[in-house]
Automatic annotation (TrEMBL):
Keywords: Glycosyltransferase, Transferase. It comes from Alloscardovia venturai. The keyword Glycosyltransferase applies. Its EC number is 2.4.-.-. Signal peptide: none annotated. InterPro entries: Glyco_trans_2-like, Glycosyltransf_2, Nucleotide-diphossugar_trans. Residues 5-164 form the Glycosyltransferase 2-like domain. One of its GO terms (molecular function) is glycosyltransferase activity. The keyword Cytoplasm does not apply. This is Glycosyltransferase.
Length: 286
């Protein structure tokens, strides 16, 4: 079976990083390695990760620091540079991958030799009814989240063959002003090199909908990154405009996020921990 490295960039992620690591290490097939790359956190993220490593020495979690440049892109790149698995996956530090995620990723690449990158649906654990959110996310992503006839990779849930990294690395935008969607930039440069991507509906990640908790002006600014990214990469044909859909849904999803968050706070419900509990019990991962 192909081996899978998971890269997790972190910056002040003490709230969720432990749950993220518990999900990443409680899998039907173990990851080859899980590389946490910290980017000058000012909270206790590094101490928490090191404590997890000390308590779970057989889970091959590796902590590294990227201190030269501040930002997601150089931190992500540092992790991709040192990864040794056949497949390199990238998730966020607040993501809770499904317990069969590593197995699904490895099997998908093994059975699709012409595919170099794959992404999948996301369910949102801090919105009510995560399965319904996953259905909506899949619908938008499959219908609108594409370019040049291929799927755009989504940073919270993506994996690529490690062999393509040296070929595209030098072409990726540094985005020092932090105005692009780095995962779309990554995808478009893959397309320019002739690498193909696909959508796997079984490659499921739980993620935070925390963008829905931001102000309207902040959310609009974040959505403008779609246009800014594509404008900086002329010649690509967009398959849709997911930002238009999300802007329309924002008032409803923002209200849900606020109300559900307050309800979970009152009753002390840890939604990330609950997300895959029943699945882990069914497959004997406790």
């Amino acid at each position: 079976m192909l081996t899978v490295t998971i890269v997790i960039p972190t910056w002040n992620e003490s709230r969720r990083v432990m749950a993220c690591l518990r999900n990443a290490t409680t899998q039907t097939v173990k990851a080859h390695e899980i590389i946490v790359v910290d980017n000058n956190s000012t909270d206790n993220t590094r101490e928490l990760v090191q404590g997890f490593i000390d308590q779970h020495p057989n889970d091959n979690v590796i902590l590294r620091q990227q201190t030269q440049l501040q930002g997601l892109i150089p931190t992500r790149n540092y992790g991709l540079d040192i990864a040794t698995g056949d497949i390199v996956a990238r998730i966020d530090a607040d993501c809770m991958i499904k317990p069969n995620w590593v197995e699904v990723v490895a099997q998908y690449f093994a059975s699709h030799p012409n595919i170099s990158g794959v992404t999948g649906p996301v369910c949102y654990y801090d919105e009510p009814l995560p399965p319904l959110g996953q259905w909506g996310d899949s619908l938008v992503r499959e219908k609108q989240y594409s370019a040049d006839g291929m799927m755009l990779l989504f940073g919270s849930n993506m994996a690529v063959r490690r062999s393509i990294w040296p070929e595209i690395k030098s072409d990726l935008c540094e985005d020092r002003e932090d105005v692009y969607h780095e995962d779309i930039d990554f995808s478009l440069h893959m397309f320019e090199h002739g690498f193909r991507t696909a959508f796997c509906d079984q490659m499921i990640t739980g993620a935070s909908a925390r963008r829905m908790g931001t102000s309207w002006e902040s959310f609009k600014a974040y959505m403008r990154r779609f246009e800014t990214t594509f404008n900086a990469h002329p010649g690509h044909v967009r398959g849709g405009y997911p930002e238009k859909t999300l802007l329309k849904l924002y008032p409803f999803l923002h209200t849900l996020w606020m109300v559900y968050g307050a309800w979970c706070s009152i009753f002390k419900i840890d939604t990330p921990e609950l997300l895959w509990r029943s699945y882990r019990e069914r497959v004997g991962l406790v």
